[in-house]
Amino acid sequence: MLGNYSSATEFFLLGFPGSKELRHILFATFFFFYSVTIMGNMVIVITVCINKHLQSPMYFFLGHLSVLEILIISTAVPFMLQGLLLPRTQIISLTECCAQLYLYLSLGTSELALIGVMAVDRYVAVCNPLRYNIIMKSQTCLWMVIVSWVFGFLFQIWPVYATFQLTFCKSNLLDHFYCDRGQLLKLSCDDTLFTELILFLMAVFIIIGSMIPTIVSYTYIISTILKIPSASGQRKAFSTCASHFTYVVIGYGSCLFLYVKPKQTQAAEYNRVASLLVLVVTPFLNPFIFTLRNDKFIQAFQNGIERFCRLLKD
């Protein structure tokens, strides 16, 4: 207990419990996940930027999604790795905690908005292919991306501000590997019931709000695909949105698991597992989901490697 009128100015993150050997195993595992995530998403960004055959709205959005994945995983995982390798070093100031939570939530909100935008893009590609280039012109795509980024960073100002207006006087031990809002609320001496309700409603608004264009888009997409007479035509049409659909299921599933619950102060073990799904697993899967079965991207990547090898020889 910090005292009746004092509030914590720094937090000690407990991270993952367990023996030294277990922490080293976790460090190796998460370092592998982090490295592959950074390299895989960087490959997507670079390939999309340099290859003229990938200058289309779908790959433009994919490039921004990959940038978001890199930033999201980098908000917390490096600090988590430090704590696993060097125990008792995970001390974070109140300001740093606020910045970390704000960046994480803002980037996540921008990502959800972008997923909705990508669903609309797939709807136009499948349901209005002849008008695709007219509707999804470069200026429109640019504005859609800008709005997604700006919306995420503006929307999370009040929730983070409200969280850090609370007095954290119960303890400065945060039972998590990053500044999780649910665990922060546990440390508050104030009545957090109203704040938790508002935060819950805002989480519902963000997730359900971005799901609506996704659900509507895929309803029309499936309806259109089923009207195609040949099975090969149906497979070809669905292949254009299969990767995005897979990512939607994983992304929204993990977000619903973590955020859409009335009680923000959930058990620490639950929050850790759910946070790993959002922070580590989803960004890790992104490069594989969008590229492994994408022949156009694979060909562009191979061409880029061949061009790079020729430059080295010259």
Automatic annotation (TrEMBL):
Protein name (record): Olfactory receptor
InterPro entries tied to this protein: GPCR_Rhodpsn, GPCR_Rhodpsn_7TM, Olfact_rcpt, Olfact_rcpt_6C-like
Compartments where located: Cell membrane
Family (UniProt): Belongs to the G-protein coupled receptor 1 family.
UniProt domain G-protein coupled receptors family 1 profile: residue ranges: 40-290
Record-linked Gene3D superfamilies: Rhodopsin 7-helix transmembrane proteins
GO molecular function: G protein-coupled receptor activity; olfactory receptor activity
Biological role stated in the UniProt entry: Possible taste receptor.
Entry GO CC: plasma membrane
Species per Swiss-Prot/TrEMBL record: Sciurus vulgaris
PROSITE patterns per the UniProt record, alphabetical: G_PROTEIN_RECEP_F1_1 (PS00237), G_PROTEIN_RECEP_F1_2 (PS50262)
Signal peptide range: none
Keywords for this protein: Cell membrane, G-protein coupled receptor, Membrane, Olfaction, Receptor, Sensory transduction, Transducer, Transmembrane, Transmembrane helix
Bilayer topology: Multi-pass membrane protein
Transmembrane annotation, as ranges: 25-50, 59-81, 101-120, 141-161, 197-221, 242-260, 272-292
Taxonomic superkingdom: Eukaryota
Coiled coil start-end: none
A matching Pfam family: 7tm_4
